[in-house]
Amino acid sequence: MTLYASRNPADFQIAGSPDCGSVAGSGGGCRAFLSSTARNVGVQSVSATNGSVGRIDGRGGMRMWGRTQSWWDIAELARESGFQNVPRLLQTDGANNVVLSDVELRNAPGYHVYASNGDGFTAWGVRVRTPASARNTDGLDVDGTRNVTIAYSYISSGDDGIGIKASTQRTEHVSVFENHLYGTHGLSIGALTAGGVDDVFVHDNTITGVDAFGTPSATSIGVRIKSASRFGGKVENVTYSDTCIDRVLRPIDIDPFYFGLEGKTKPWFTGISITGLSAANSPSGAVMRLNGLDSDHPLGLTMSDVQVDTPNVSSSHAQIAMNGVTFGGERPHLKGVGVSVTATQSPITPPICTFPPFPNA
Q: What are phi and psi of 309, to 5 degrees?
């Protein structure tokens, strides 16, 4: 069974806001298709005998009623300037104990799931099936939320696969494990980190640069932490372990200069650990970034049992400890302003990687 979202922008219009279904000088013109501020709210379906689950389809690639463009066309028009006013598929704000289970989300006009300012969020067995080319269609995002679990899910989308944000409130106590990402911008923290992010454990996930439809993404990313001084804050105590990456353009991307957006807040990434990571079949031009903001806010990173097949890496203002790490088959030799590396070369034991196909049912 499938629940379809309306294609009529008027059904999502927020009074007094920019025209829903347009590019404007600001966003926020559309309400979400499904939204809640209640406690103990959830979306769940029952799996059929063939493995299929209930679906919610945002029809983002279909032409809007009374318009010549789709929601995704609007997002592309906003790439050069302005903001797309498109609805999110599912949104909660201030809702505690939110559960998504055994449901497939398709073709969101904007973000698929955005859960903000709550205590308790669980996504278990969720499928997000959207092309990598659909701009700004994040899979599962949490913002200002504590006690988060995202597990056993399959995510194909046109932006962050899993996004951990903290726009105004702290996000903490987050577990992300046994998920499979396809053609996305990866396991991502940021870009909004002003509220602070703390205590994040990311374990046993796979990331491939090809989406659920077999199309390689032109912007695929693996492990990602991003922010900028426009909306920066402290990101600390983050562990990535047993991460498998295949055919991804930026296997590891840690950067506090997101789109060069300047302001008065300072992003600081410290206490970051990457243990057990394998990245193979990287496309031509694949590159990594390991950057801190400045000498007062350096990247604090520990890496062990990490094997990445591309040698291309840039780094600045970083304090990095390495044990059993190779980039391009060789021990890394990082050079950059303010970069300090402590390295030992023990035998590498990267994770054993298999990449399951996106479920067809």
A: -80, -10
Q: How far apart (Å, rounded) are the C-alpha atoms in residues 262 and 269?
A: 17
Residue 312 — very low, low, confident or very high, per pLDDT cuts 50/70/90?
A: very high
CB atoms closer than 10 angstroms to residue 68: 7
Pair type for strands 146-151 and 268-280: unpaired
Residues classed as catalytic: 159, 185
Contacts of 33 (CB under 8 A, 6+ apart): 5, 6, 12, 56, 58, 87, 88, 89, 90
- Residue 221: how many CB atoms within 10 A of its CB? 25
Q: How many CB atoms lie within 10 A of CB 66?
A: 10
Residue 361 CB burial class (10 angstroms; 0-12, 13-18, ≥19): exposed
213: helix, coil or strand? Answer: coil
pTM value surpassing 0.70: yes
Contact residues for 49 (Cβ-Cβ < 8 A; gap 6+): none
* Residue 113 pLDDT exceeds 80: yes
Given a contact cutoff of 8 angstroms between Cβ atoms, the answer to whether 273 and 240 are in contact is yes
Which of 270, 335, 332 is CA-nearest to residue 306?
332
3-state secondary structure of 234: strand
Over 80: is that where the pLDDT of 54 sits?
yes
Q: What angle do CA 268, 306, 191 make, to 5 degrees?
A: 30
Domains, the chain, with CATH or none = 111-344 (2.160.20.10)
Does residue 236 register a pLDDT over 80? Answer: yes
